[in-house]
Amino acid sequence: MLRPLPRMVAPFRDETITSYLHRLAGPNRIDPAGLRSWLTRNDRKDAPVPLGPLAAVTGIPCRSLAWAMPQICTTGDLSGLHMRDRPRARSGWAFHACRACVAGELIIRWALHDDVICSRHRRWISTDHEQPDLTRQPEILHAYQRHRRLIRRHGRDPVMRAFRDAQHICIGWRLNGLRDAGYHRRMEIFHGPDWNDRDEWTPHTSDAATYPQSVALARMLASPYWRERILGTDWAGHDEFTAELRRTVAPGYFWDYRPSTRWRRDREDPLLEWRLHTRRLAFEPLPPGHDWNLPETIHPPALAATDHEEPLRSAPGEPDSMRQPAPA
Fold it and tell me: Is the pLDDT score of 213 beyond 70?
């Protein structure tokens, strides 16, 4: 029979189960792998942890755990919970929580695609434990506000896909030699005037410096008006799209600016590659369950008419803290 451990540790909002088990095992002097094996009755390192046994050893009610970590829950576990914009467990989107918010504790949590900045402490948040200070980076902070407005205007999933494509295109442009003056200016603020372009040593600051251009391009890729211009067959529409692109995203861009004399995929214009791929998907769509098509948020089952629960609250500006039930 599972009994509560001597030391109770509350999970943080959207914390990964691996991160939580490490924090739970430490004060209780248990090996994290052994704790997971004990809960799952399985020696696999990635065995899913059931909600019931976890509640039994932590002494935390199942519904409170389900609200804190919906990513480990089954459909039945989520039944009756009011929940919006909670991230699914997705490869590559387990981010370090803001160190200032969690008092320096090492906590990994699932993130949405726009969870890249801690507004309270002005830090860049990513899969990297380093969290660059953005106090001297107003362009990145303004881009974050534009990003959130795009989501409110076009919806979370369309903007998520547009931003994902925009990131790929902007990185491809830079690797192909299309200079982004804003990127170099922001990297110099991060690393000083002696900085040289070696992304492999500074992945977190490189992503942050690329962010404003990626958001600017995502605005166009998420807009039905601009998508119609770039994906259509009317060359006047292409010219209009290119003019807006040069004005707001990449001043040095021109259509297929680096034509190749022979077929080399890595030398093609990434925007042209995106256009060809997107047009092809209209005739050869991916299966409905393909990872590329899945939403980034969890969609719990509909709330029963007789089952109502107040949403759990957290202090303003502390999205990583454990939410407590609202008073009746």
Answer: yes
